[in-house]
Structures are given as C-alpha cells and as structure tokens.
Write a sequence for this structure.
C-alpha cells in the first residue's frame, strides 16, 4: 500500500516534524537546497548588480556601534542613494553588508532567521561567538558565487552577554572569521575609514562619542572614495548607525545624526578657513 502523500492530506512533510539540528540553514540544505543563495544557478556572462560599499564598527564603554553609508554603485553609476546596509541580526547583535547588495540582503535575512530558529528550538540565545561562527558557515556556502564576482563580505558585532562588552568580527569571502579589536571597516572606502578610526578612537568612549567617530569615519571615506556616500543634508539622507549594548540593538535617530553631521561639516569648514578669513 502506497503511503499517503502528506501534502494531499494537509499534513506537514515529515522533514518538518522530524527532530534534527537547531540550524535552519542545515534544515534548508536537506529539505530544499535550491533555496539557499549559494545554490542558485547564474546566467552565462557578466552579471551587473548593485554593490554596497563602506561599513564601520567600533567598540565603546558598554557596547559597540556599527554604521554604514547609504550609497550603492553599479559600475561607475550610482544605483541607489538610500540603500540600508546595517541590520539587527537579533536583539544583541548587528550585521553590516558590503559587496553584491541583493545577495547580501538575502544573506542577512537568512542569518536573522537562523538565529531566531535556534532560539525557538533551543529556548535560549546563541552566544556571540556562536553567532559569528554561524555567519562564517553561511558565507562559506556562498563561495561559488563569490568566485564568479558576486562576493558578500559582512561585518558582524554585538554585545557579549557573558563578557559584558562589545565585540567585532570580520570575514573574508571564504568564510574566514577574525575578531577585530577596538574598530574595523570593510568595503571600498575601508582604507580611508580605518585611517580615520585609528586617529579618532579612544578607550573608554561613551556611546555619543562613538557615534560621532563612526560618522566622521564615513565622511572621511566619502571624501576619497567615490563609491561611498557621505551625509546628504539636502535630501536628508543620513548614514544608518546603530548601537548595541546590554539594553539591546538601538538605531540612532535621524535628528541626532543630522546634528552630528552638521557639527562635522562645521569642523571641516573651520579647518579650511584661511587665517585672513573664510575662502
């Protein structure tokens, strides 16, 4: 006698009711591997896709801050001025994306679902190291696309509930995971942003100073990298900036960012003023 088709009877397939791994990615790999980003077939030839650019992160006394500019490029063109590149991974962590924008956003959504699935299955939060390792595995699964020019390079960080401090992790396209100390930046403007962070970061900073330093680093990157967009007061487009502390993930409001950007602009204007008066 042929077993009844679960779909015909309205029941869930056996894969959904069989105990297994707490990883949603592992479940998807076994049940529907074609839905994973790294297993999607690509068209023949060059693929033109928008790319996200610069992400910065730095620790402060009691947490960490992550910030990303809003520009996406496609070749020499600006594909978007308002793309968001910093997202909450869960309540106590954040992830920023650089690289192929569409795949990066999809990877972030899958990562968010992975952490939520673990919490529901296990009844507890994954440790910050565990989250960083899970993201590493997911990036490694995207290696085939990265070798074809569709790389995704995230920056991950959060508040470690066990150590009571903010931590930052960087990655390469093969899934290599590296813990960064104090600050880090990824993306096309990262060389300039890192130089800025080295000069401005100080131990024991509070969250307000850390937000200011993050915005300054993005402004410095935009000054030398055409793919990085600085604050746009005309269109009122500000970087996406978020802090992660013991209280959780918190996105910084536009009014606060407008004030920080205005203060940065005023300092730069004063720097470029001649001794005899403004230019």
């Amino acid at each position: 006698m042929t077993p009844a088709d679960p779909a015909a009877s309205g029941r869930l397939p056996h894969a959904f009711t069989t105990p297994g791994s707490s990883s949603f990615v592992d479940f998807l790999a076994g049940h529907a591997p074609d839905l994973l980003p790294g297993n999607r077939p690509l068209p023949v030839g060059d693929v033109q896709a928008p790319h996200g650019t610069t992400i910065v992160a730095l620790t402060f006394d009691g947490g960490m801050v992550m910030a990303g500019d809003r520009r996406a490029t496609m070749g020499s063109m600006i594909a978007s001025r308002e793309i968001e590149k910093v997202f909450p991974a869960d309540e106590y962590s954040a992830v920023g994306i650089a690289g192929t924008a569409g795949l990066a956003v999809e990877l972030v959504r899958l990562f968010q679902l992975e952490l939520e699935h673990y919490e529901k299955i296990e009844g507890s939060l994954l440790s910050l190291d565990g989250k960083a390792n899970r993201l590493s595995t997911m990036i490694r699964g995207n290696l085939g696309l990265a070798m074809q020019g569709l790389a995704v390079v995230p920056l991950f960080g959060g508040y470690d509930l066990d150590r009571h401090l903010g931590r930052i992790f960087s990655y390469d396209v093969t899934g290599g995971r590296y813990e960064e100390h104090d600050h880090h930046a990824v993306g096309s403007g990262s060389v300039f942003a890192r130089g800025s962070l080295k000069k401005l970061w100080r131990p024991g900073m509070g969250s307000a100073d850390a937000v200011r330093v993050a915005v300054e680093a993005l402004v410095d990157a935009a000054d030398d990298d055409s793919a990085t967009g600085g604050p746009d007061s005309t269109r009122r487009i500000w970087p996406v900036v978020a802090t992660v502390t013991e209280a959780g993930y918190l996105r910084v409001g536009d009014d606060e960012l407008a004030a920080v950007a205005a203060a940065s602009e005023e300092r730069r204007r004063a720097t470029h003023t001649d001794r005899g008066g403004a230019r």
